[in-house]
Amino acid sequence: MPLTFTLDPAVTPTLRDGVLALWTDVSNAGGAVGFVAPVERETIRPELVKHFVGMAEGRTRLLVGHDEDGHVAATAFFSFNTHRLMTHWVWLYTVMVHPRHQGRGYGRDLLSAAADAARTFEDIEAIRLTCRGGLGLERFYGSCGYKEVGRIPGAIRVAPGDDRDDVIMLLPLA
Hints:
Elements: E1 4-7, H1 13-28, H2 41-56, E2 60-66, E3 72-80, E4 89-97, H3 106-119, E5 126-132, H4 137-143, E6 147-159, E7 162-172
Parallel strand pairs: 4-5
Antiparallel strand pairs: 1-2, 2-3, 3-4, 5-7, 6-7
Helix pairs in contact: 1-2
């Protein structure tokens, strides 16, 4: 069954807990979403709160995918630029699909839904994201239409002696 995507869902305790569980499960499965396993929900919670504050302030929007049982299965957060010379593109952050749904094409579905959503945003011409090098993520994003436009070697320190590239990807929406 495909995921059902919703842009700007109501932030309820169920949604909050679902996104927090997703973020924890993705992190603990080795996903490159800002944390390194093992990680607890309480470690992730402050970062989720920052996203929710951005949503309340109108700087951030959430795209959530629910599975056939109604559970949060995927997310992507859009962040709008405040610099007047960069308001024509958005950041895409915390792009996640639950590990139990890996290999079903849901990552592609999420990125397609994100592009469709961004096309509805006034004056937005592109989506920009970064990903952690060394995991093949840049190949995945490339297969979804994103182009690598920059790379900062060793910018992400996963652990002492384990530095990864920060890969900058761009998807033009035109």
